[in-house]
Amino acid sequence: MSRQKNYEVEHSTNGLSFSQLGIVANNALVKSYGFTHSNAGSGKHYYRIHQVDLDGKAIYSSVADVTFKTGASGVRLLSNPVRNNMAEIEVTSAASANASIELWSLTGVRIASRQQGVAAGINNLQIPLGNIATGNYVLKVRINDTVQLLQVSKL
Question: Which of 10, 17, 84, 134 is the most buried (most CB within 10 A)?
């Protein structure tokens, strides 16, 4: 069985011609990876992963398409894994809004929820995780009609 050397993140605006956005190195200890496409711009975007193995073999993932709307809300996890009992997230909102923030177990049990006001622009929020056990969880953030799920690990 081949081991992965790295994952090349590729992007296209037409779904046919792809170019490399970046490389994520493989680490046997890491169970999930992330990559952020900064300044993608509004419109439809296509992404795929080019997996390169240590033996030189390579395969492509299926293509995923994403439509970005101008002024859309977005959420980014700033601290993962969480080490200080506080998850830090960055929330970008086109206008002032109320964010609904929920923490879920991987078995589908809602552990905590809260409402948080966010201003137009970039907001840095801290979500307390002090009373939960070590493990993996899902953070669900809803701003107006946009919902984003983030996996968070607590050490």
Answer: 10
CA distance 151 to 137: 6
CATH code: domain 74-154 is 2.60.40.2550
Find the Cα–Cα–Cα–Cα dihedral 108, 112, 114, 119, rounded to 10°.
-70
**pTM score, two decimals?**
0.55
Domain chopping of the chain, boundaries: 4-68, 74-154
Distance CA(124)–CA(116), nearest Å, equals: 11
Nearest to 20 by CA among 54, 61, 48: 48
Residues contacting residue 118 through CB under 8 Å, at least 6 positions apart: 91, 93, 96, 97, 98, 99, 125, 143
Residue count (the chain): 155
pLDDT tens digits, 26-69:
777 777 777 777 667 777 889 999 987 878 788 899 999 888 76
